[in-house]
């Protein structure tokens, strides 16, 4: 199929914009490179959509989905895709992204982002679904690597190799979640450097950074803490290998004051600019 149309975010640091900060951002208009929102929160229209329209007047917006279930075996939800297309047409986002996971079985939708084995069969299945999504949206989809708490013994390739093939066969982009990758290195022994080396540099369009929690010796992708020293270190490595990309600070639970998020974004911006200077 034809390569999908691409849209681009500024190569700057942004924040995940959540409801507690809507009014403050609109009233004060702080200096932000861009903002990301969860797509599904705006499908119903009304006040949330009106707020997003106002935000879009001042900042580039990225739509980040959590409910599509790209790797689910049930048919793609066409109502979901229609709602997302309508939202894209209204907001004209600079990027649209989804998680590489499944989330439905036996007619039930599971409120989680679940892993799957990286096999040739799964690859063909996900490729066909991404092709369909990009055709419906008439734009490129960015696909995010997953934080996982188990791995499958019958996987035939690594997650990085799987994502590389997805990008090659569909023209989709890659959203590299650095914190998810770090969580997987600690929980599953994933080789972070090998993962980064296995994905095509040109396909990486965005980075995500977030804070994790530790529970019974396991790291959990909770988005409720500042970015850790270890994740900052891995981000630095990704910048060296891939180059500066639009970078998002995610914080979804125990959401702090806007100034805290701005401080995290400022730190990401400092590192982006430092690598821009080094590259020049």
Describe the structure.
The protein is α/β, with parallel strands linked by helices. It has a single domain (13-279), classed as Divalent-metal-dependent TIM barrel enzymes (TIM Barrel), CATH 3.20.20.150. Helix content is 41%, strand content 18%. Strands 1-2-3-4-7-8-9-12 form an eight-stranded parallel beta barrel. Strand 3 (61-64), helix 3 (78-91) and strand 4 (95-99) form a beta-alpha-beta unit. Helix 5 runs parallel beside helix 7 and helix 7 runs parallel beside helix 8 (229-242). The longest helix is centred in the C-terminal third of the chain and has 22 residues, at 258-279. It starts with 12 loop residues before the first strand and ends with a helix. The relative contact order is 0.15.
Q: What is the CATH C-level name?
A: Alpha Beta
Spans of at least 5 consecutive residues with low confidence: none
CATH H level, superfamily name: Divalent-metal-dependent TIM barrel enzymes
Strand element count: 12
Helical region count?
9
Q: Which helices and strands occur, and which strands form pairs?
A:
Layout: E1 13-16, H1 22-28, E2 35-38, H2 46-56, E3 61-64, H3 78-91, E4 95-99, E5 102-105, E6 108-114, H4 120-137, E7 142-144, H5 159-170, E8 173-177, H6 178-188, H7 192-198, E9 204-209, E10 213-215, E11 218-220, H8 229-242, E12 247-249, H9 258-279
Parallel strand pairs: 1-2, 1-12, 2-3, 3-4, 4-7, 7-8, 8-9, 9-12
Antiparallel strand pairs: 5-6, 10-11
Helix pairs in contact: 4-5, 5-7, 7-8
């Amino acid at each position: 199929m034809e390569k999908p149309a691409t849209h681009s975010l500024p190569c700057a640091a942004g924040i995940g914009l959540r409801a507690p900060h809507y009014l403050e951002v609109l009233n004060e208009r702080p200096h932000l490179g861009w903002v990301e929102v969860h797509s599904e929160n705006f499908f119903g229209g009304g006040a949330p959509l009106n707020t997003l329209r106002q935000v879009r007047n001042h900042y580039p917006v990225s739509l980040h989905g959590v409910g599509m279930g790209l790797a689910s075996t049930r048919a793609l939800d066409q109502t979901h895709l229609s709602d997302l297309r309508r939202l894209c047409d209204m907001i004209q986002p600079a990027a649209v992204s989804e998680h590489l996971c499944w989330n439905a079985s036996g007619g039930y939708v599971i409120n989680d982002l679940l892993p799957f084995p990286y096999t040739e069969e799964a690859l063909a299945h996900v490729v066909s679904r991404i092709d369909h999504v990009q055709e419906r949206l008439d734009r490129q989809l960015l696909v995010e690597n997953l934080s996982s708490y188990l791995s499958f013994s019958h996987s035939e390739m690594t997650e990085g190799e799987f994502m590389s093939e997805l990008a090659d066969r569909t023209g989709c982009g890659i959203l590299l979640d650095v914190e998810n990758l770090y969580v997987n290195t600690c929980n599953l022994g994933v080789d972070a450097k090998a993962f980064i080396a296995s994905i095509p540099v040109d396909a990486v369009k965005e980075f995500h950074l977030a804070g994790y929690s530790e529970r019974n010796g396991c790291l959990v992708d909770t988005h409720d803490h500042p970015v850790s020293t270890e994740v900052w270190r891995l981000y630095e490595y990704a910048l060296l290998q891939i180059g500066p990309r639009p970078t998002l600070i995610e914080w979804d639970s125990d959401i702090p004051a806007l100034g805290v998020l701005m401080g995290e974004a400022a730190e990401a911006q400092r590192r982006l600019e430092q690598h821009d200077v080094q590259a020049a």
